[in-house]
């Protein structure tokens, strides 16, 4: 019973990482994802790692069930109950046109059609005062319509329920009596923040996915139990913390970004081991790149998350804490093309796995980032995915030539250009999470994961002037690795607009105390120990008259409003270049998070290679602005701890290739990470 | 010239310019003090080159698509490039010089490199009040611009980096909500400062010559994109006529017309023949007219592309001076977005038949802005609840029109959540729902629905209301056989009596009284009898269409119990 297992189900592979808490050993298993029977993929990965479920003390799981049910629109037939007069809030949404010059714009279409949106008579004001009592009789018509139409889940969102949830609770209780087999989600059960459309959407999406998630988690638990697992199963939430199965079933919408969040937690824990609390995290896959920022050991989270959001599409809001991840359509499969104005563009369209990049030889005609990397000599055609996929350089050159001819560019020039453009896209995304939020990349290390991270990171790190670039071992299963290190977490928030002044300190103390008791109760109910629990407080604050707020961390204990206010002025200055000291300040929403204590970090791998490993060979690599050089090629498995080499160097492993530019230095650090020092 | 530069570096710089405009927008929207900026996003930011050509722009709404160029040109004419110094910031809000209305305060900061002006950073925000006859500064019955508040005709507010305190004091003394106004002045100044900082960083990193070359490339790229798209629109002369419902002073309809000529790769609009400038404030100036037209040019050429003046190189405009779309001093322009909205609708209507994949039938058009103003005893402050309303859009060849979407003249504009409104203003929101009762807009692809939004006054003092709702008589036009949409209006309800209004100047309101904004259905596209009967059935089930309408207009027979399609009955109705 000494193993912690972490399993991450992705679109293609189900990954598993097993930490032995006694020996420190780390085992990896990989199996194909089985879309029709997802638990089987988890069991297959357990089998592939040669782990016996009976030895498992705890299993941590990341799942895509929630996001899949949403994007495939395969969730439950859902109804919504709202305050009289507000039946259409879900459809009216915010009415905005982010694609403002598109005069045939489409809004996100609601998850509950109008015929299944019902009203009840009741009214509460912003202070939680009842202006009109709840008329429970109105539910009779709702119940009969739900029976008639085979409704499978119900969401309830009443006006100002963040201030007084009692009406929602009464509606829920009445519905559960009348329709005992239909799960009911109340908005105040998920979030106590204001804005009725966002809260309605959150409740609806939770109700919509709940039956599918419940079926999935039940099946997973049963199958693991049948295989002999006795330890608890915990699920990774979008906030990067874990939760027990019971609360995952109750508010499955908290799992919406389960997998990606775990990678960010992995990066935070890696930073902790390196003594680097400030980390920029970059994960480059086949079609997208994801960026996040970790400051003082904590990933930034947001409650303004929207599924399917794009700069030109509003998406559907979910008001739960989600690790703040910026995702862009730039990866190995991103296709280069020429737009109507004659400019070369890369992505967001991707060649995917089929037909894949031109060099896969599966019929892809357009040059992709991978083709450009092959042409530049970064990739070895004989050692892609450890040699399992043979690449065809000639097909890459042909594709580059076809596009380049029309532009008057030689294929090698175009290949360089493609790499530079895709790097520029990634720089923009990394700046979005750093510079644009008032952080200086020079204070951060760049952790690169995913199949493509290590290939681009040295160039990106140099441009951003980060402290150094770090490529962790097993970067192909980094999300699973991060899951294994995630800790229990619960969050609570309350909207309560208060003027920041010494006289409001008692009120703030009371709110934070209440929120802390609430999250602690949640954690204890899950079986976590509160002894090692760690609390964090913050508040959304603004100058009176502003709408948008700045999230300000707040120290534990009795609140010193003066100190909080000073921190707010400083943060406002950092983010927006100015402050308005002397102007009245408001506290809008208070937040509390509790963390259940961190799992121990597995001990570093013992050195394997010899002190002076033999190079695999040499190859000609085009480093763009840094020139064309003969680079030494190493196999990562051969490199011992402490190994150092000056660039130009290529380090190959099965799932990724790391590039070290001329002038940069490679080092294998004590934890087995590749560190690239940039100057 | 371009050959000397690496084409990919220029591409990367182009993206940086766009990102700079975005960043300016984020700073402005997140720090503004006015709900009309941070929720309605009534602002824009961007960069022009030293000759006032827009290189990059981020808009909260489309009304500023054409205003930066003429505004910066005006400043260059006043001061000369030689008369500007690093650290200067100028403020302008004069409608007749490229502006919109006096509430929109535009800040311009010259950016210096190599000892000369290389660009201008520009931000514009709608201030919630700039003085004048009424709180909010846009009296619906204004008869000259003096009633619309303080004019800032290209005033230097920062002189070589130092704040000109006397100007700040003058502004503060002339507006009703100085803390908010000066807050927005701060936000706008922060935005142009960020624009300057990022552009100078780019100059340092890439060199001034490359940055200047990227300006040219941005413009060339826009122009090429627009010309390529225009070649797909059939050449010809396309005309449209319409009316504006009243000017705020009189309810008389103002006739408007346009003749649009499409050439091989160019486009010309001639607005000759429109009504002369009106007594009331629905007039717009040519800057706002340009915005209205350029919005349609973008829609039919490159709706998803980043904004710059290159896209508009193939477009030209004829408008005689002194019309409702080319107002001259001292004509009032407070409700210029009414004039601009109808100019936009007119231009759109002319081109809709030949741009089926980019333009649908007519929409509710007017922003339908309603104001409720008074004193909030709890905060002991004046309050101004100003809000545009979402409405119904027209059906198109691609599908049904959208319901509850903000008008063309706005953009990424959010409605106010009821919970936020109630926290900030002494009102209760009693109803916010789709205006399905209006019906209308029938078609193979029907128009989308507007909304009904009701406020009940709840604890304010000295409260009054006003508004300027267009389309209270004129209906959104149908396309390709679709039917007309429905009207927009305001209703003031007191003791059971309902007063329905379009443009209304100052009505005193009593505690408990209801103010109701109602917006209309968009026009339909195509013959309603060709609509898929299953979709008509779904519309009836959802309460969008009545069963009678289904039968009479869509010629679809439904079983009144199950609401299933009666196939035989429908065939009978449709063969008739």
Descriptive account of the structure:
The complex is a heterodimer of chains A (679) and B (576). With 679 residues, chain A is of the alpha+beta class. Helix content of chain A is 30%, strand content 26%. Chain A has 15 helices and 35 strands. In chain A, strands 13, 14, 15, 20, 23, 24, 31, 34 and 35 form a nine-stranded mixed beta sheet that branches. In chain A, strands 3-2-1-4-11-12 form a six-stranded mixed beta sheet. In chain A, α2 packs across α6, α8 (258-274) crosses α13 and α9 crosses α10 (393-405). With 576 residues, chain B is α+β, with helices and mostly antiparallel strands. In chain B, 29% of the residues lie in helices and 23% in strands. Chain B has a seven-stranded antiparallel beta sheet. In chain B, α7 (286-301) packs parallel to α8. Chain B is globular. Chain B starts with 6 loop residues before the first helix and ends with a helix. The model of chain B has no long low-confidence stretch (mean pLDDT 94).
Structure, briefly:
The complex is a heterodimer of chains A (about 675) and B (about 575). Chain A is α+β, with helices and mostly antiparallel strands and about 675 residues long.
Please render the helix and strand layout as text.
The complex is a heterodimer of chains A (679) and B (576).
Chain A: E1 3-9, E2 13-20, E3 26-32, H1 38-48, E4 56-62, H2 65-71, E5 78-83, H3 89-92, E6 117-120, E7 123-124, E8 130-132, H4 139-149, E9 153-157, H5 166-178, E10 184-186, H6 196-226, E11 233-236, E12 242-244, H7 245-250, H8 258-274, E13 279-284, E14 289-295, E15 298-299, E16 301-302, E17 305-307, E18 316-318, E19 322-323, E20 326-328, E21 334-338, E22 344-350, H9 369-375, H10 393-405, H11 411-433, E23 445-449, H12 450-464, E24 468-471, H13 478-484, E25 489-499, H14 505-525, E26 534-543, E27 550-554, H15 561-576, E28 585-595, E29 617-622, E30 628-635, E31 644-646, E32 649-652, E33 657-660, E34 665-668, E35 674-677
Parallel strand pairs in A: 1-4, 4-11, 5-6, 5-9, 9-10, 13-23, 23-24, 30-32
Antiparallel strand pairs in A: 1-2, 2-3, 7-8, 11-12, 13-14, 14-15, 14-20, 16-19, 17-18, 21-22, 24-35, 25-28, 26-27, 26-28, 29-30, 31-34, 32-33, 34-35
Chain B: H1 7-31, H2 35-38, E1 43-49, E2 54-59, H3 68-79, E3 89-92, E4 104-113, E5 116-126, E6 153-159, E7 162-163, H4 165-174, H5 178-206, H6 208-230, E8 236-245, E9 253-262, E10 267-270, H7 286-301, E11 315-318, H8 336-351, E12 369-376, E13 381-387, H9 418-424, E14 427-434, E15 451-457, E16 461-468, E17 489-494, E18 497-501, E19 503-508, E20 514-518, H10 533-541, H11 547-552, H12 567-575
Parallel strand pairs in B: 10-11
Antiparallel strand pairs in B: 1-2, 1-5, 3-4, 3-6, 4-5, 6-7, 8-9, 9-10, 12-13, 12-16, 14-15, 15-20, 16-19, 17-18, 17-20
